């Protein structure tokens, strides 16, 4: 089989390369390769890279280090809050990565990276060497940014639920326990942050739940921004499906949260304290802790990378993908992280073979559910330019403002299809 590297990249991103190279590499056996790639984090970015490295070049030995036995996705966690999915539906294990694709999965945490020695240290004290390292640790929170808020407050009374798992369960329980007539305060952060439309999908699906079970209740969004992703589409959906139930307050109209008082269950704004029965504070964010500890971040709090390979511009040999990296026009989304993971896998194979990475195409679609049979989306294809990663004009777009009910129902269906497909593509 003969294929140019340019064609290879095109095939990869169209999804065709996966199945084509799968024929070559799906033996399921990890055999000792001469090249060792270690991937940190089994979420959207890391698991995609690990799987695609093995699919594309089964001679590479790939080790994935992830402390959790199974990964709970943030995508569709809002659907859990809305009563439309269970936690089991959004939980994925690493069995297929191990058994079908021959990735060695180590259930541990990486505590430090030694870029000079090409070595990482695990929580167990074990050291692992690598030829290339991929780091996809997601996000961490700027706890100090909101006076009165802390990790301990998030875990006890005011969950962020911006990393899915125990936090999602806590917020779900609080919503179920809330009285009819209660107020849910939802406090999104300023940009940039994980999943720009996520807080507004959350407001929608909480309202969906409240409308059925506690119809006198309301959702009040106190925003640190003056505008938000897919704003026109969300606002129209709220007026149609949840009239009077969702209030949005822009930062410049007193929406910005200045502090919280967990005992009083209030948040402080320019207009004084606002009381909530359930308070969902989503703090400002930065790259995952490991990225900071390893010195992979710059003054922005995120990791600068070469956009053709996602190799760190600070520590050569280490690729940073997903939410932690600075990826130009791409949003911090699971789809983007997975797309970056595939590009990083292709680039690593080229680099390990002494070739230059090929300028990639990248892709993202973010679906949001506003109600059952009511979905909206934003999509784009990205390329490299002298300004870094930019979206290709006309390559994507938004659900039209005048979309018909059929189109909105179709978008909701596509959202479900998207989740099923991407989950299978990454962990299946
Ligand atoms: C409510 C909500 C809804 C969302 N909906 C969508 C959606 O519909 N579509 C979409 O595309 N995106 C969505 N997102 C965004 C998406 O979840 C993230 O962008 C995506 O998870 C980022 O992938 P990642 O690989 O960077 O990080 P993650 O997927 O978070 O993975 C990071 C992994 O690294 C591990 N890790 C961290 N530190 C270490 C360490 N030191 N050692 C070993 N492992 C470590 C963690 O345990 C974790 O498993 C949503 C987010 C939220 C909060």
UniProtKB/TrEMBL annotation:
InterPro entries: FAD/NAD-bd_sf (IPR036188), FAD/NAD-binding_dom (IPR023753), FAD/NAD-linked_Rdtase_dimer_sf (IPR016156), FCSD_central (IPR049386), FlavoCytC_S_DH_flav-bd (IPR015323), FlavoCytC_S_DH_flav-bd_sf (IPR037092), SQRD (IPR052541), TAT_signal (IPR006311). It holds the Pfam family FCSD-flav_bind. Keywords: FAD, Flavoprotein. The keyword Flavoprotein applies. One of its GO terms (molecular function) is flavin adenine dinucleotide binding. Residues 359-427 form the Flavocytochrome c sulphide dehydrogenase flavin-binding domain. This is Flavocytochrome c sulphide dehydrogenase flavin-binding.
